[in-house]
Amino acid sequence: MREDATEHREIDIVRTFNLITFDIISDLSFGESFDGLKTRTVHPWITAFYEFMMLQSIFIQLMNLKIPVLSNLAKTVFLPMARRRVGAMNYTKAKIEKRLDQGNERPDFMSFVLRHNDEKGMSRAEIQATFNLLMIAGSETTATLLSGCAFLLQKNPHVQEKLEAEIRGKFSDESEITMLSVTHLKYLDAVIEESLRCYPPVPISLNRTTPPEGATICGHWVPGNVFTFHAYEVTAILITKQVVVGVPQFAAYSSPLNFAQPQSFVPERMLNDHEAKFDNDRRAVLQPFSAGPRNCIGKK
After folding, report:
1. Domains in the chain: how many in total?
2. 43: Cβ–Cβ under 8 A, 6 or more apart, which residues?
3. Prediction pTM value
4. Is 238 inside a domain boundary?
């Protein structure tokens, strides 16, 4: 990026963030990087992943409409295409097997799994599934948030100036920036939290299942095991119908019922000494990593 800046070349920041995060997470998961930044190319696995997510989204929406013609179209056209993309993504299996054979000496995610993997630990199949999930959840979502944050800062120069002042006031050299030292940057935390509100990486609902005894949701009684919509998980060989409920994140975060001036990018609302007009903000609504005991493993 410094080279590009020196040569006054345009940078596709979204593409760059994706190359960065996929390189990092592949190194931590597989023991080797995709080398996207070095080669300035997108790895075929990443291309297959994005195509799969797009096809899966189209498939789910067509199935949820419950219109026979569209459901049949989804099953005959989009489902086979999505399954082929899953096949292309099986590249990770060989990488995980290779990393498993290298043992636990290398300091990465796998070393911790192997170091504590006794008879009560994870099977190879469970490790495969877990690291496939880590590869997806630990890369694209981070890149999406960073892209949204960069966009919002550019659209709100007064916020960017305030953030720059905090960072440059705290550090005189980049070598001083560590995992521990950045925890003292309160305004940076606020900027990230507000970016998650305005630009959530997962804008749709994260699945929840009603308990057998039923539940009251938004003032409405929902009986046990009664779904509010269908979700279909596209796997390599089948479709699994799940009964779920959930809160669409973007809708919740942009609602004036939950946040004052919901369309405005105001990191100050996330600070304890915010203006009075943000006193009634329902900050507990902001759950971009999901909630409960199975929320995101990467949540700080």
Report:
1. 2
2. 22, 34, 36
3. 0.80
4. no
Reading the block at residue 188, the tokens are: 């940076």
Domain limits for position 257: 141-203+249-285
Which of 216, 200, 298 has its CA nearest to residue 252? 200
Helix 91-100 vs helix 124-137: angle between axes, to the nearest 10 degrees? 120
Q: What is the pLDDT of residues 153-199, one digit of tens each?
A: 999 999 999 999 999 999 999 999 998 999 999 999 999 999 999 99
Low-confidence residues in the chain, pLDDT < 50: 228-243
Would you say the C-alpha torsion 251, 14, 145, 197 has a positive or negative sign?
A: negative
Side chain identity, residue 179? M
| pLDDT for the residue numbered 227 | 55
Structure tokens at 280: 């009634």
Same domain? 58 vs 98:
yes
Q: 85, 119, 140 — which closes off a domain?
A: 140
Q: CA quadruple 244, 292, 280, 150: dihedral positive or negative?
A: negative
Residues 124, 78 share a domain: yes
119 with 84, same domain: the answer is yes
How far is the C-alpha of 86 from the C-alpha of 234, rounded, in Å?
9
CB-based contacts of 89: which residues, under 8 Å, 6+ apart?
Answer: 45, 48, 49, 52, 132
Residue 240 belongs to some domain of the structure:
no
